């Protein structure tokens, strides 16, 4: 009995060190993307990245451009957070992860391109917001602030075309997306900041 318990505990310890441990399996690319966001929020970068890439691959195989764009937004967000110059601890542990920060820009621009092609302007605004925050994290204030403006403009245009295209935000400090973007712009783009 003690041997079984010891073996069980040993297996659990080994699995906890594995990046794929306790990652739910699904063949649905939408669910993979949802799980990827959850893992990113838990700082489980590698399994989050894996699920995001799998989701992108599966949406690409289905020729689902909206899903592909959503996958690109996720990957841009992931790389923005972990390839950011303000996160030196990550670079200490994973120095080759994205040293030139190109992955965040690449995926954000792909999302913007796909959403633009689909005329999903509210979604374009979401990808522009991610890219704006990335640029501000890289001390490219002018680029980031211009993208905040473009993001608000595209969101308003998208809502004017189809009021049902808005989306919920995962930030309880703001009522809606335009309010959040306006506040970020106020905080980061005022003169002298």
Given helix and strand content, the structural type is mainly alpha
Calculate Rg over CA atoms: 19 Å
Largest sheet: none
Total helices: the number is 9
Unreliable sequence segments: 6-10, 12-19
Give the averaged pLDDT, no decimals. 82
What is the overall silhouette? globular
Instruction: Report strand %.
Output: under 5%
Instruction: Tell me the series of helices and strands, N- to C-terminal.
Output: HHHHHHHHH
Distance between the termini: 64 Å
Helix content: over 70%
Number of strands: 0
Structure commentary:
By secondary structure, the chain is mostly helical. Helix content is 71%, strand content 0%. The chain contains 9 helices and no strands. It has helices spanning 2-17, 29-41, 45-61, 65-82, 88-93, 102-117, 121-137, 141-161, 177-189. Helix 3 (45-61) runs antiparallel to helix 4 (65-82) and helix 4 (65-82) packs antiparallel against helix 6 (102-117). It is globular and about 45 Å long. The relative contact order is 0.08. Residues 6-10 and 12-19 have low confidence and may be disordered.
């Amino acid at each position: 009995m003690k041997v079984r318990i010891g073996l069980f505990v040993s297996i659990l310890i080994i699995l906890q060190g594995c990046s794929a441990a306790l990652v739910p399996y699904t063949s649905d690319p939408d669910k993979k993307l949802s799980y990827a966001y959850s893992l990113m929020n838990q700082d489980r970068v590698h399994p989050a990245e894996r699920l995001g890439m799998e989701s992108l691959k599966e949406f690409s195989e289905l020729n689902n451009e909206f899903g592909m764009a959503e996958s690109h937004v996720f990957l841009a967000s992931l790389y923005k957070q972990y390839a950011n110059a303000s996160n030196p601890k990550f670079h200490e542990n994973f120095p080759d992860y994205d040293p030139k920060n190109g992955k965040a820009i690449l995926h954000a621009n792909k999302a913007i391109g796909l959403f633009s092609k689909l005329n999903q302007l509210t979604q374009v605004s979401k990808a522009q917001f991610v890219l704006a925050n990335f640029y501000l994290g890289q001390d490219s204030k002018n680029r980031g602030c211009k993208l905040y403006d473009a993001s608000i403009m595209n969101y308003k245009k998208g809502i004017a075309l189809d009021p049902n295209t808005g989306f919920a935000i995962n930030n309880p400090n703001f009522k809606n997306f335009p309010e959040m973007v306006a506040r970020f712009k106020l905080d980061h783009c005022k003169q002298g900041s």
